């Protein structure tokens, strides 16, 4: 059995997950990174994307996140997410609303840098939609 570490996922509303896990792939703002037990300390901002969690025994769980922070260390990973929903609970209409919101962010952007960032978020949401077959 692989080593485990404590994983906590917190949204503004509540603690969503607090349990031992084998690994988590985190959608960092600079790219995805995998956290395993005994990970070096790291702090990262998050981009919209999927958090891939492997529970003891190999069971997997995918969670859609929109923004936030992740703090990893040798014994734990804490993710503070602006918005999080288990992919099992993510439906076509909820994701369509997220895409609509992102399209509005692109249209409302007054500065190129803001527009580029919003466009990147929109592209990632569309990729998630396509990856999960919710298109």
Task: List key phrases describing it.
single chain; alpha+beta; ATP Synthase, domain 1; five-stranded antiparallel sheet; 27% helix; globular
Please give the structural blueprint.
Layout: E1 5-10, E2 15-21, E3 23-28, E4 31-36, E5 42-46, E6 49-54, E7 60-65, E8 68-72, E9 76-81, E10 84-86, H1 92-108, H2 112-131
Parallel strand pairs: 1-9
Antiparallel strand pairs: 1-2, 3-4, 3-6, 5-8, 6-7, 7-10, 8-9
Helix pairs in contact: 1-2
What is the highest CATH level, the class of the largest domain? Answer: Mainly Beta
Report the CATH superfamily of the largest domain.
F0F1 ATP synthase delta/epsilon subunit, N-terminal
Helix/strand/pairing category = alpha+beta
Percentage of β-strand residues? 35-45%
The profile of the biggest β sheet is:
5 strands, mixed
Number of helices: 2
Mean pLDDT: 90
What is the fold-level CATH name, i.e. the topology of the largest domain? ATP Synthase, domain 1
The quaternary state of the protein chains shown equals single chain
> Can you tell me the number of structural domains?
2
Helix content: 25-40%
Q: Give the number of DSSP strands.
A: 10
Distance between the termini: 37 Å
What is the alpha-carbon Rg in Å? 15 Å
Spans with pLDDT under 50 lasting ≥5 residues?
A: none
CATH architecture of the largest domain: Sandwich
Looking across the biggest beta sheet, what order are the strands in?
2-1-9-8-5
Described by the principal axes of the CA atoms, the overall outline is globular
How do the helices and strands follow one another from N- to C-terminus? EEEEEEEEEEHH
